[in-house]
Design brief:
- With 183 residues, the chain is α+β, with helices and mostly antiparallel strands.
- It folds into 2 domains: 4-96, no CATH class; 118-182.
- The protein has 7 helices and 6 strands; from the N terminus they run ααααααββαββββ.
- A hairpin with a 2-residue loop joins strand 1 (122-130) and strand 2 (133-141).
């Protein structure tokens, strides 16, 4: 597994590459790769900040996204969303996003792919509510107990420094026969 230092260096390299690619009006697989390492939002933020200081880069980005009106340009919303993160912290945040996404893939996504193909696996709908936010997902397992155990284990993990599952979250699990259980 790559170290934090190597992830941060790779982030900087991808931002540098993406900047040069946009200035060259390049459309390539290599450019796409710059945004596909689980930290694409932070690449966008870094590019938008550079574009604010470099009129040529801003012109290149606007040309690339000319089919989208400025009010609908998602990159502006992404830059605004992360405006409180200082420039020097972006590589660290990007590396943390990669680590968390890889953890999610290994510990939730892949086990669920395996579980749904196991004999006796059943779908359980998990609803997580915290304040106005609500997330519904289907987890597969042999029993309600097994799914509850998996969901409870999420309290120990973080995403971007915040708990993946807050202790304040209201959790309900709907069994295949329609019963609802609060966790």
């Amino acid at each position: 597994m790559p170290s934090m230092k190597s992830r941060m260096a790779a982030f900087r390299n991808r931002v540098n590459y993406a900047e040069q690619a946009f200035l060259r009006h390049e459309d390539s697989r290599e450019l796409d790769n710059c945004f596909e390492m689980y930290d694409g939002e932070f690449v966008v933020v870094a590019l938008m900040r550079r574009a604010a200081r470099n009129p040529d880069l801003m012109a290149a980005l606007r040309a690339e996204f000319s089919q989208v009106s400025p009010s609908e340009w998602s990159w502006l919303r992404t830059a605004e969303k992360h405006k409180r993160i200082p420039d020097h912290k972006l590589p660290e945040m990007a590396a943390q996003a990669q680590i968390e996404a890889e953890w999610h893939s290994v510990n939730i996504f892949m086990p669920q792919l395996i579980a749904r193909n196991e004999e006796g696996a059943q779908p359980f709908e998990v609803v997580r509510r915290e304040g106005p936010a609500e997330l519904k997902e289907t987890l597969w397992g042999p029993s309600l107990r097994a799914v509850c155990h998996q969901v409870r284990s999420w309290h120990a993990r973080t995403v971007m420094g915040s708990p993946f599952l807050s202790l304040l979250a209201e959790i309900q699990i709907r069994t295949p026969d329609g019963e609802i259980h609060a966790l």
